[in-house]
Each structure stands twice: as C-alpha cells, then as structure tokens.
Specification:
Structural class of chain A: mainly alpha
Distance between the termini of chain A: 77 Å
Number of strands of chain A: 0
Largest sheet of chain A: none
Strand content of chain A: under 5%
Shape of chain A: flat
CATH superfamily of the largest domain in chain A: Tetracycline Repressor, domain 2
Helix content of chain A: 55-70%
Oligomer: homodimer
Amino acid sequence: MAARTPHPQRRNQVLSREQIIETAIELLDAGGEGALTTRSLTERLSTGSGAIYYRVGSRDELLDAATETVVTAALAAKPARATTTATPEDEIRTVALALFDAIAEHRWLATHLILQLVRKPFGPVTVGIFERIGRQVGALGVPRASWFDAASTLVHYILGAVSQHARIDGDTSTVEPDRAEFLDATAAAWQDLDPEDHPFMHAIVGQINEHDDREQFLTGIAVVLDGLTRLG
Amino acid sequence: MAARTPHPQRRNQVLSREQIIETAIELLDAGGEGALTTRSLTERLSTGSGAIYYRVGSRDELLDAATETVVTAALAAKPARATTTATPEDEIRTVALALFDAIAEHRWLATHLILQLVRKPFGPVTVGIFERIGRQVGALGVPRASWFDAASTLVHYILGAVSQHARIDGDTSTVEPDRAEFLDATAAAWQDLDPEDHPFMHAIVGQINEHDDREQFLTGIAVVLDGLTRLG
DNA sequence: ACTAATCTGGTGCGGCGCTCCAAATGTGTC
DNA sequence: GACACATTTGGAGCGCCGCACCAGATTAGT
C-alpha cells in the first residue's frame, strides 16, 4: 500500500536464533570461514545487522554457537551402537569417528573445535566430549587416579588428528576435489628433499599415496588404547 | 634543513626481512594475534606498509614466517641431550617438550602450528618435526610398513596436546597470572554440573587442581610410546 | 486504546589488509 | 662526476570488515 515507508516490510516470520546459526553454518560450509560476515549473513536473511547482534552477540559468539550446534548434533547422532554388545573401545571409536565425520562435512570446524576446548572448558562441547570418552576409561582398566590423564590423552590425540582435516579456506566446490592431486604434490615435494638430511621422509614417501586418513586415524586410536592399558 | 620534503628521512639502516619477522614475533608475544596489524608493525619499524609487503607479502605469509622462525629455533636449540646415551624415547620427548615450551613462550603459536601442518606439508616446520620424530620409530621396534602411521600418531598427539595451551588473546601481562584462578573456576563449573548427567566429570574434578600440564603431557607421550610397541 | 517492552533494519564509525605509486636510494658505466 | 636504470621505501587511498547505535515497527500487558 504505502508507497515508501522507512521500514517497507518486516520479517513475515520471526527471526530466531536457530535460524541465524543454521544460516551461518550454511555460509561456512559453502565458503569457509571467510564467507561468514555480518553483511553476507544479513543479506541471506534479508535483515539488518541489529537483529543478528541482538540475538547472538559478536561474530565470535556466532562461531562458537555454530561449533556447538554441529558438535552436539554429531555426538547425538551416534550413540553407542548396540547398547548391550558395545565395548568401551567401540564407544570411544564411535565418538572419535563422529568428530572425524563432522569435520569432513564442515571443514571450518577443525580450528574452532580446538579453540572451544581452550576457551570454554565448561560449555557443552568440551564437557560433552570429555564426559563421553572419560566414562569408558574406567572400563578399560585404568585406575581411578589416572582417569584424568587417560581421558586427556585420548581427547588430545583425537583433536590433534582430526585437526589435520582443516579447510584451506575458499570455495568448496572448486577447491575440494584435488585430494589425490594434493597427495601427489606432497609426495613429490618429499621426494625432492635431500635424502641425506631427510632419510625418514624418503622412507615413507611411498606410503602417503596408499594411506587412508580414516584408517590411519583408527590405527592411532588403537595405539593409544593399547597404551592406556599399561597405565597405573 | 628542508622545511618539508615529501620523504623527510629514510631508514638509517636497511630494513631486512629478518627484522620484520622478529618485530612481528615481539608484537605477537606482547599482545596476541590481534596485536599484529600492518599499522602496528609499520609504526614500530617506523616505515610504511609498502616496505613490509615488498619483503614478506601478505599478513598470512608473515605469520607463517614467524611460526617457522620460532619452531625452527626451538627444534635447533634442543638437540638430543647426550648423543651417545639418548634413547629414541628421549629424543621424542626432547622434540615434544621443545614444542611445548615454545608454545608456553609464544602462545599464539598453537593455532598456527597446526595450520602449518595442514597448509604446508612441505616447508621446514612440518618436515622438520616429522623427520625428527619419524627417525626414532624404527628404533622403537615399529615395522617399516607402519612407520608413517606411527609417526602420524605421535605428531598428532603432540600437536593436539600442545594446542591446549593456546592464548585466550589479549595482553600478556594482565591475562597471564590467573592460571590458578582459571583452574579453580573450571573445577567449580564442573562441580556444578548435574552429577547424574556427568558422573565422569565429577569423578575427576579433584584431579584438575593437582595436575601439572607438563607432567600430564609426558604421561600422554609415554602412553602413545607404549602403544606403538604393539604395532606390527 | 494506550503504554511499555521487545525487536528489527539500516547508517555510520573506526580500523583492517592490501594496492599502488612517486620519490628516494643504490648500482653500474663511461 | 654525471647519467640511466633497478631497487627499495613511505604513505595515501580503496574496499572491506565487525560492530555500536538508534529510530521506528511490532507485540504484549492492562
């Protein structure tokens, strides 16, 4: 009706915090961390920056919230397989792979997952992961006095390994498919190193192309689990 | 002399790439990642942005260079202790603690160390760490076919654990000394969790105050090393 | 129907990384 | 010493950014 009111129309639907976070995740998935800006978000939601800051506060808080959403969903989606037959080792692998897969789907997660552990040692992400993993260490035969050490070791290994899959940052569709290419380039670069200075790199250069990230990750977990049985 | 020439005076000494990197490290140490800006750097060096971009390129490249300088120095400063008596385990611990201490001194390092591993799998940082650690795994009794897996597991654990000590970002002098305070707050928050939902967190809350990061780190390494002996 | 509380879109500010370029400085040649 | 040429420098300016702020629209309470 009105030809030109200062606020022509409003949201037909109320703008919820969840909507903002979900849209943020979409932007992050599509274009990496750099693609999440106040302006890209306001445009996508066709709103102003005021609404966003009213709901979520700063950009950092939005990133934290996105991380929390994704991690919580990932952990919830993969409970212990069959509740009766699952061993503690199974449960730990389940949690670890849930995080691994979450990062495969949302590459920007890697960096922020670690930041959460450091910046918010309370908070659902840190507590959730620690609790889920920690519960199993007793069943592994680790003495109570070493529970904290054991859980820390597991969590640290898992996060370190999983961070490996961080995003190079940029558009997904164009940067994604060169995994094989990337491995080849790495192998070639390692091959070019001076064999005298880098005998080890030369010894393993053949293994880089035939290795599978997920399998290597599971091998690493098996190593840590083995080591934990000797704690006490 | 001249009342106002467009370029009143120049550097009395040529501006070297090393100077820029060192100044950047100083700024990072003093104020965290946010304190390193083109402008703060040009001010400190009393130059213009042109000189800096001419020498080091982008800000990211400067951060990479700073990371490389610090890590290389840390690794070089701590060679195997006594060359004859050092076991492979000793050497691995030496490298791990060198990284641990480097991050204690330069908290901003944590984030960028992991990024280097991901973004520049060649490059002195990644190769240096891998080579140094990888050489030992053979001596540990790990079969050649598993060398890559073993080295990866070690590096991933070390980086994951060491990232824990990332900076909250801000001024060093004011933010630093509240370590005990921080642990107390964490313990209190864990204590407040619902004991039914978080039995594990409650079980270990007593251990958080008496634990020592460095010792826990060494325990973790011992766990991984133990686990590696079963590889094959 | 009126008021108070809640919520939203948009403008503008200070600061960022970085490009670009004229001028100052080195380097070679005769 | 004079000149041409390559190298190096300081700084102005551009297009972004996160975010504070606020007028006004909407909703809820009575």
